[in-house]
Design brief:
The chain has about 200 residues and is an alpha+beta fold. The chain contains six helices and six strands. It has a five-stranded mixed beta barrel.
């Protein structure tokens, strides 16, 4: 099975198989259209990012099933390395932009891993994103600090990117966030719309 190669401005096509370095994540995930800043202090994760910067600035960001452990979840996000800053000889700060969800195939390597990544289509959110954005607006109206943070993080005016960014940073469990990543765009909008209204109602009791 041949590996596909992408340019910086090219989005991966669904069904293509890419070979990408793996960046394991603990208690966080990255969604398409959202961004993430991390401080890396493990030699293996620093090496994975260095490999990505030498092979097209793309990697596969994927959450571990147990923080600090293994195995990895079956769905992660193809991400582009936007910035890399060396903090100390053992620490680096990385900024990632989510490009596409991907299903993970064969993983090779122990400390530094490389995986087959098959991009997944987001699907059409249709009318579902409107209700999700309205629910998000209601929730952020009651959480000004979070609203300011998300507005500073937002890089796209697209409504689905706004929903994805919220999914990444809302105060929900890591397992709930992973389920949102695994859902199609329409299903993700339905889940976040219902979930935010329920969360807001619980907070106001």
């Amino acid at each position: 099975m041949a590996a596909a190669h992408m340019s910086h401005d090219e989005a991966p096509a669904a069904g293509d198989t890419l070979l990408l370095p793996v960046l394991p994540l603990d208690d966080v995930c990255l969604l398409p259209g959202a961004s993430l800043s991390l401080v890396l202090d493990r030699p293996a994760t620093v090496a994975a990012v260095q490999l990505a910067t030498r092979t097209g600035d793309r990697l596969l960001a994927v959450a571990r099933r147990e923080p600090g452990g293994s195995p990895l979840h079956a769905v992660g996000t193809i991400a582009e390395v936007r910035a890399l800053q060396v903090l100390t000889p053992a620490e680096q700060r990385i900024e990632l932009d989510g490009v596409s969800r991907a299903r993970i195939g064969l993983v090779v390597g122990l400390d530094v891993m490389v995986a087959e990544a098959v991009p997944l289509q987001e699907g059409d959110a249709e009318e579902e994103w409107g209700a999700a954005v309205e629910a998000l607006a209601r929730y952020l109206h009651a959480h000004a600090d979070l609203r300011s943070f998300l507005e500073a993080q937002r890089r796209s005016p697209d409504a689905m990117s706004w929903v994805n960014l919220a999914c990444q940073h809302l105060p929900i469990t890591a397992s709930a966030r992973q389920k949102l990543l695994e859902a199609s765009a329409a299903d993700r909008c339905r889940k976040i719309g219902r979930g935010l209204d329920a969360l807001l109602k619980k907070e106001q009791v």
